[in-house]
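DM from R.C. (forwarded with permission)

"hey, sorry to bug you on a friday — could you get me a structure for this? deadline for the figure draft is monday and I only need the backbone to look sensible"
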Amino acid sequence: MRRRLDFNLILIPLLAIFAIAPLTRPGFFLAHSGFLPVLNLFDLEKALPGLVRLGAGPGLGWAPRIGEEYNLFTGEGPLPYALAEAFRLLGMSGSQAVKGVYALGFLLSGLAMYALARRLFGPHGGLIAALVYTYLPYHLAVVYLRGAFAESVAFILFPLLLWAVDVGLKEGGRFVLALSALLFAALALTQAGLALLYALFLWAYIFALGPSREAKVRTASALGVGVGLGFLLLLPLILKGGYLLGPGPDFSRHFLYPFQLFSPTWKYGSMEMGWKGGFPFQLGAVATGLTLLSLFALSRGVKEVRGKILFFLAGAGVMALLTLGPARLLWETTCLSWLLAYPWQLLALIGLCTSAAAGGLLALEPRLARFPWSAALVALIVLGSYNYLSPRFTDLEVKKPAQGILGDKVVLLDYKLEGPLRHGATIRLTLYWQALKEMEKDYTVFVHVVDGEGTVWGQWDSQPVSGERPTSGWERGEVIGDTYKVSIDVEGPREGYKIKVGVYLVETGERLPTEGNTFILVEPRAEGSDG
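My reply, with the result:
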């Protein structure tokens, strides 16, 4: 007997086009992380020869460390960058490869959620759950506002891993149990802290909904193997050292206010808490509305379906409470604060629960699965998120490693040089900065033209853009084009000049350190060429 084609497997990727569409635009979008995923990808490529030599070089134990000190739990893992490197092998640029992984995340996360919700609530519930999950406001913000590269890949693994756990509970089988362990290891290689928190959620699912004691022990043990395997694969990184453990300095400042979970606004501002906050932390009107409807319709469902929906409702409620200020003591006394950079990252798991509960609504109310109700739900989910899909872009294309990282505040992405480096000439140097975080102080940029002995023959000091864009006003992830005209003294050597660039505070003379605590050296490739 032939199996009928499941058209939802075609419909879900087609409907995800609206989420992916901004990624097809030329250039790169201005998320909080800026070009850091691209720069980390270039750093991985420098480390690849070490992998070939089985750890003789820096490849084994590589982690994305550009622009920040690496945290073992909250830092990004290497797996998302390995996926991006696969796109690079297809001939894509660094920016295109990163955007390719983001696009893959939208496509596969929807299909993974469909596999999970279809198994739990049927194909109609699976379709709605997949679309809600794809278009969650937080999911869109993870990509287009935060630029959280690893977390976008984790969105694929969350429902896929829960699907494998549920299959293992009900059907067993060594293959499925091994798959559960491998999927968890992949999640640990994506973001270790999120993986450990998700393991707690999965163990709760196993012991709450497992059909028998034997099935619970078997599946929980497979998940435990996955935890061990994941950290075994991270062992080269752990042994290499150079990482932090413990909560970040801002963790306690990032608990939410209840109104932020239900706010309808969508802004591109910083992740500041309270009334002035500009980041969209909302659960999503569509996801919340469908979840509440499933709660009201619980009395109409069969016992097994009601139990699953209740689990997801309870999970979403508990985790939502953990994002609020009163939960601070629990985070700190249990060391859970070690696992996340911000408590509101639980919104990813809350979204998993609300998406599944939204799909469960169609199992409770089969009439909603019929036309035109089903079409109206699909349109509501997609169109309800349309205003969120307008990220800001820059036309700058970063094709090589950064010219320099200044502390953890600013990266010099690239430069453009016009004019010859000769005595008596005037050069025009455009620097392309990107802010890694908001800065409270106004820094001054110096541009020095020096000879081989370090003698300065031309210089210009100024706040960025001739003082019109002081650094205290830079938004996180923003790209600033900053142009300087420098005349080279006619009494200097004829040729052989270099350009030194740095950033300092006028009041103290303190300079922002670069890697190696040295100045940034900008050396043109050829006279009069673009940098």
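R.C.: lifesaver. Residues 52-57, 524-531 have pLDDT under 50 and may be disordered.
me: no worries. Residues 8-59+67-246+271-389 form one domain.
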